[in-house]
Fold this sequence. Notes:
The structure is a homodimer. Chain A is an alpha/beta fold. In chain A, 35% of the residues lie in helices and 21% in strands. In chain A, the strands form two sheets. A six-stranded parallel sheet of chain A has the order 1-4-3-2-6-7, with helices on both faces. In chain A, strands 8-9-10 form a three-stranded antiparallel sheet, with helices on one face. The longest helix of chain A has 16 residues, at 124-139. Chain A is globular and about 55 Å long. The model of chain A has no long low-confidence stretch (mean pLDDT 95). Chains A and B meet through helix 1, strand 5, helix 5 and helix 6 of A and helix 1, strand 5, helix 5 and helix 6 of B. Strand 5 of chain A pairs antiparallel with strand 5 of chain B, so a sheet runs across the interface.
Amino acid sequence: MNVVTHIHELKELIQQHQRKQHSIGFVPTMGFLHEGHLTLAKEARDHNDIVVMSIFVNPLQFGPNEDFESYPRDMNRDQRLAEEAGVDILFTPDVKEMYQGEPSITMTVQKRADVLCGKKRPGHFDGVVTVLTKLFHLIEPTKVYFGLKDAQQVAVIEALIQDFFFDLHLVAVPTVREADGLAKSSRNVYLSERERQEAPALYKALKQGEVAVEKGERDPKRIYQLIEKELLQTSGEIDYIDIYSYPELEPLQHLTGKVILAVAVKFSKARLIDNVIFHVPESGEKLV
Amino acid sequence: MNVVTHIHELKELIQQHQRKQHSIGFVPTMGFLHEGHLTLAKEARDHNDIVVMSIFVNPLQFGPNEDFESYPRDMNRDQRLAEEAGVDILFTPDVKEMYQGEPSITMTVQKRADVLCGKKRPGHFDGVVTVLTKLFHLIEPTKVYFGLKDAQQVAVIEALIQDFFFDLHLVAVPTVREADGLAKSSRNVYLSERERQEAPALYKALKQGEVAVEKGERDPKRIYQLIEKELLQTSGEIDYIDIYSYPELEPLQHLTGKVILAVAVKFSKARLIDNVIFHVPESGEKLV
């Protein structure tokens, strides 16, 4: 595995692979790798000639009250895990390498940003699309890999690719789950024993919503109530229960097309999120 | 010459050339080609395996009171001229092909935009960088060609390329001039006979400024006065005389580094612009 910190080194390696017409799978991360990242890397490994991973804690996507400085970093461990996952090139630039002075041109996400987790993080996705535009230009990937756990991020990046005609394919990788359905997350270790037992309720609630839609329910209010009822049985505090079209993330009066059901629940020391995305069956069509 | 209107056709042709590792010279235009465009095309022809020209009147770079609808178009003539200039692929999309619905993500030029001609065209360069980002992604040029007649546009596009790490080289082609120094422009035909005789004063004034700097003058106010004195001898109305660092386009108290002297003069039926860009000799160093 090549570990490079400078853009010119990265580009030299990328050009070598381009000359051989190699397909490039790209996994952008902020490091402190967990199973989710490694699943993305393995997926990239299986479907591309080479795998590039970036580790860059992007200051532009942190708000003034967010934890940029204290965001966890462990480069030695990350390097080992990336190499084990089959990464060929690990790009670990510092902030100066990625942001050379005040920008002359900025990007602003006008849609899909001000809902779900983005509601409380103004400017977050502006930072995400800016750094990804730079990384896409440096790495020129054939495919780029993101986890559906952060379905809003996937929706925004689909918009980025479509709006600006990026010549690459986004692969949205399904959320990896524990045996009891709980979405894997580095934050699960902060749950108390009781909370850990309650936490599968998020996925259970979402699945109940999905099943109700399959059975013919099309009223988002009724789906909301079903999900809420299940979540109220936990000791957590419901942050949001949202039902939107996907990937547009627009509210629906009547469920149709592709939809997302998404929840966030605050436990004592961890805020958990989860979602399900599915096609609503044609209207009138009851599966039971 | 291949003339293509659809993105998928364009990409197919581009991919054929990429497989052959051809270098691609790109000349973006809004059509109604004149000698300036053809100079860019010839420059591209001389230094690349293939030449791609786009003709697209980009609505996003026109203000609400500007002449998008009435902007001159003559596709038949343009096709002939492009072919004669050695263009291999002429891309002529319609608006729907380039803008598929309301954008989710926008670009804003924060620097270099609100000076010179951009002062009176808010949003103009936002439209320019948006459409160029799309075109760069579709065409993946090795080199892209712009005329230095519009030096502000060149400065903004240099910022675009630098800020977002576009993997391409901008070639800024010097302004083509008549024998008497007047910058060539489609608008020169609107000058009266007397105005046509006066019009070389723009370049003469700029060169006087440049010579004064070469001789040791570093005070922008004195350079301004020199240029103004020359322009006041014409019947035109001075729109602006600006002296900035280049390509940053920031005001200078004392001339140093690379600078631009730029003027705009309104004659009865034509507004003419011109500029000179040069390195200021090291301080203290008098050439005379």
